[in-house]
């Protein structure tokens, strides 16, 4: 026998998920002896264990057994918390559903990592603002996958880079896993390195750059067609002293990832040009704001409350013209506003679309209640989100507000036999997207007779 000799065990389906590679190598035992061993990497069938094993080449005794799978721990701002001034971080253990991330967040079929990278996302610093991300710095949780790093807000964002990247990694995975439950899966063009034979194109986990040096006071997400990696750039914000890090404002991460969702679902995953401008581009911004507002909600919240976008990073001032609320005195925007001076841009149009959708959201919550567990799709909040995602799939490329409205109504017909149509119509009509509204901001406040 010679070191580096190797072969593959193929008749192992009863114990392993895949063929087992065996290779001769040397290890040093605890008492300092050099031993020739067979090194076996066994991804166990029927369990989460993936063993890296060293078996003595002569006696057959197991000399080393390491389980690559650990209970990962993350200190992050969880669902229901918008940013550091809205709540505290929480220590979360293995917060992923098996159907969306069957191998967890730190491995693929080909490799495993103790850093902030895995099948769904590569999260790393990019302080120099370049495009070479693969070898950039990432926090390392060690064998125990413990990503618990301190934050001192009296210091600059650079001082808590590990915590920032961890939060960015966590939320990219949450967005992947959560929207998987609502139909943003492999066939629909989600972001995964390995699609596990479920359809769609792989090799497109998100590249998520923390404290990206290419800009400040903003963030962006590039969404190429399925099979090419999306890229998220998160920036430091300079409106306060010390500066603040957008990586800690969950709403910004959610908003940016939301662009990947709406772009891949509208017109199909092979087409990334359906939400580029006009009303369609505006709705792209609006859907992202809606996702951000929804995932900060708590059971005690109600429709009269006000919700800002970017207010933590921007020093306490929201980055939209109006806070999101159903109170028309605070946020007066209606569909006709998109014809006004100053509403030509996609972000301004997006505010209008988000405000319209959130009216219907609160109608659902008022009727069906709020369920904190977004993953199980029960409760008015989850029902509404499911219709929005289904509507993205049903609407045409380059949709108008009217097209998107009709797609959501059609989704309700398909999923719930149309029983919620009046909840939707009341929200649409309140802000000018009523029965007789037409593309271009021609508003109408009427509803079908059965809803009046």
Oligomer: single chain
User: If you average the pLDDT, what whole number results?
Assistant: 94
Principal-axes shape call = elongated
**Strand residues, percent:** 15-25%
Estimated radius of gyration: 24 Å
**How many β-strands, per DSSP?**
14
Helix content: 25-40%
Please, how many domains?
A: 3
Spell the H/E element sequence.
Answer: EEEEEEEEEHEEEEEHHHHHH
Please give the order of strands in the largest beta sheet: 1-2-3-4-5
Distance between the termini: 84 Å
What structural category do the secondary elements indicate? Answer: alpha+beta
- By CATH, the architecture of the largest domain is named Roll
Query: Any low-confidence stretches, pLDDT <50, length ≥5?
Result: none
Count of discrete alpha- or pi-helical segments spanning 4 or more residues = 7
Reported for the largest beta sheet, the result is: 5 strands, antiparallel
CATH class of the largest domain: Alpha Beta
Task: Could you tell me the CATH topology label of the largest domain.
Answer: Elastase, domain 1
Enzyme class: hydrolase
GO biological process, one term: proteolysis
Keywords: Hydrolase, Metal-binding, Metalloprotease, Protease, Secreted, Zinc, Zymogen
Protein name: Extracellular metalloproteinase
Give a summary of the structure in a few sentences.
This protein has 452 residues and is of the alpha+beta class. It is built from 7 helices and 14 strands.
């Amino acid at each position: 026998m010679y070191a580096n000799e190797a072969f593959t065990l193929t008749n192992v389906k009863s114990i392993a998920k895949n063929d087992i590679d065996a290779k001769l190598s040397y290890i040093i035992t605890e008492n300092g002896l050099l031993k020739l061993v067979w090194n076996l990497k066994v991804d166990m069938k029927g369990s989460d264990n993936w063993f890296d094993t060293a078996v003595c080449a002569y006696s057959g005794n197991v000399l080393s057994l390491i389980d690559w799978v650990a209970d990962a721990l993350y200190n992050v701002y969880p669902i229901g918390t918008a940013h550091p001034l809205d709540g505290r971080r929480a220590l979360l253990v293995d917060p992923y559903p098996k159907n969306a991330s069957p191998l967890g967040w730190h491995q693929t079929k080909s490799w495993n990592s103790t850093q902030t990278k895995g099948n769904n996302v590569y999260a790393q610093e990019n302080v120099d603002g370049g495009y070479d991300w693969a070898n950039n710095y990432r926090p390392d949780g060690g064998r125990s996958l413990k990503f618990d790093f301190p934050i001192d807000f009296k210091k600059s964002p650079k001082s808590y880079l590990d915590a920032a990247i961890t939060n960015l990694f966590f939320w990219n995975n949450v967005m992947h896993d959560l929207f998987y439950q609502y139909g943003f899966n492999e066939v629909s063009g989600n972001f995964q390195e390995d699609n596990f034979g479920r359809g769609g194109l792989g090799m497109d986990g998100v590249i998520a750059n923390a404290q990206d040096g290419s800009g400040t006071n903003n963030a962006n997400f590039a969404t190429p067609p399925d099979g090419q990696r999306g890229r998220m750039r998160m920036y430091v914000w300079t409106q306060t002293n010390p500066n603040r890090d957008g990586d800690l404002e969950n709403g910004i991460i959610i908003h940016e990832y939301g662009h990947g969702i709406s772009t891949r679902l509208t017109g199909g995953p092979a087409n990334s040009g359906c939400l580029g401008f006009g009303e369609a581009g505006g709705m792209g911004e609006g859907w992202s704001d809606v996702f951000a507002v929804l995932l900060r909600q708590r059971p005690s919240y109600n429709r009269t409350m006000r919700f800002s976008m970017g207010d933590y990073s921007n020093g306490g001032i929201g980055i939209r013209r109006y806070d999101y609320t159903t109170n028309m005195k605070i946020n007066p925007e209606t569909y006709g506003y998109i014809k006004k001076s100053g509403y030509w841009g996609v972000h301004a149009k997006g505010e209008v679309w988000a405000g319209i959708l959130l009216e219907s959201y609160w109608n659902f919550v008022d009727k069906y209640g709020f369920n904190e567990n977004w993953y199980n799709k029960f409760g008015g909040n989850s029902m509404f989100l499911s219709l929005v995602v289904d509507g993205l799939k049903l609407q045409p490329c380059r949709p108008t507000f009217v097209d998107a409205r009709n797609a959501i109504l059609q989704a309700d017909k398909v999923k719930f036999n149309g029983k919620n149509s009046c909840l939707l119509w009341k929200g649409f009509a309140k802000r000018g997207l009523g029965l007789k509204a037409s593309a271009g901001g021609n508003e109408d406040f009427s509803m079908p007779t059965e809803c009046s």
